[in-house]
Amino acid sequence: MAAEGGSDQFIDIVKLSPPAKFPAAFPEDLKVAPSLKRRRSGGDTWVVSVFVIIHVGVFIATMLVNDCWTNSNGDCALKTLGRFSFQPLSENPLLGPSQSKLEEMGALRRNFVTEYHQTWRLFTSPFLHAGLFHLLLNLCSIIFIGIHLERELGPLRIGVIYAMSAFGGALMASLFLQHTPAVASSGALYGLLGTLLSELIWNWELQTKRVSAIVSFVFVFVCNFIIGFLPYVDNFASIGGFVSGFLLGSVLLLSRKLELPKVPIKGTLFDYGVKSYIKLKLKQNLDRPVLRIVSFILFSLILAGCLVAVLHGININSYCTWCPYVDCIPYTSWHCQNGETSCKTMVSDDQMTLTCMGNGNFRVFPFTNISRTRISDLCNLIC
């Protein structure tokens, strides 16, 4: 302080720090967009919980209708379960109902969709499971992936993605149907997997556990796709659901990854560097709307195209000889190129003989009181 001419003049001396270099990590004022903040409250996972409960309820109802003990004359697996016992493993290796009961509950089948135009099956098949093994693997995967996504992204968007992926998977499966029933419950799961991949790609720099996320994705994807080679589970539903989930994830989940701090332009350029500022600005102004629009257009075109093809009764297996092997691995108990089956029935005393008209195989059963639908199941098994 210095006094001069009878008046006091105060001079504050402030030490100026040198300009900061662009930080290695983003500062606190460079905030993550609100839509990407983690949601940790347990109540945010109600959508996945509701869908899981519906799946379990539908499977219980399916086994109740199946009633193997009565309809199959006691020829069942785990007979101690009585009415809820399963069809023999030779008939359903996934511990589940018979073909006819899957069809009765709303499974997809070629002639039902293409000839009889029972389009309501597009909405019922995503809630059916081929058997207990399929149910457990599918629901465990949905809980593992779905709860994580719902906490991250909120119940509304995950609910929309789940429902639309299930429908998209059923549409895709309907284009590759054969003369055996198929369930499309894997479409919703693979829709969640597609959303997870979308989140990993578009928000890669914000991921803190990249390796564990990739390993989880690959493990769930491969395990569920392998079980899709078994009877009644449709891998084309998985493919359709995955594509739907990825595109919807790009539409609904992609948002601003970063929000620039509200500081003067001079300070922003001074603190973070011209190139970094321009790069962040371009991400905000270009990537988000373009990718949203492109993804939405692609999803709409694929959905509309599949719907039109299904309504016109188009079956791609008629033009693609190798397509059935995407959904099936030939085995002694089943084959991948199937058609309509017919059997000759002979009844004598307390025995019934079924002979396949296609390959000559026959089998003698120690009962005669059997329904027409059950005869059809046994005929498919023999042929």
Please describe what this structure looks like.
This protein folds into two domains: 293 residues, Rhomboid-like fold (Up-down Bundle), CATH 1.20.1540.10; 40 residues. The strands form two sheets. It has a three-stranded antiparallel sheet with strand order 3-4-5, with helices on one face. By secondary structure, the protein is mainly alpha-helical. The protein starts with a strand and ends with a helix. The N terminus is likely disordered. The protein is 51% helix and 6% strand. This is RHOMBOID-like protein. One of its GO terms (molecular function) is serine-type endopeptidase activity. It is found in: Membrane. Its EC number is 3.4.21.105.
Outline of the structure:
The protein has 383 residues and is mainly α.
List the helices and strands and how they pair.
Elements: E1 2-4, E2 7-9, H1 46-66, H2 68-71, H3 99-105, H4 110-115, H5 121-124, H6 132-153, H7 155-174, H8 186-202, H9 210-227, H10 235-252, H11 265-272, H12 274-311, E3 343-348, E4 351-356, E5 362-365, H13 372-382
Antiparallel strand pairs: 1-2, 3-4, 4-5
Helix pairs in contact: 1-6, 6-7, 6-8, 6-9, 7-8, 7-10, 7-12, 8-9, 8-10, 10-12, 11-12
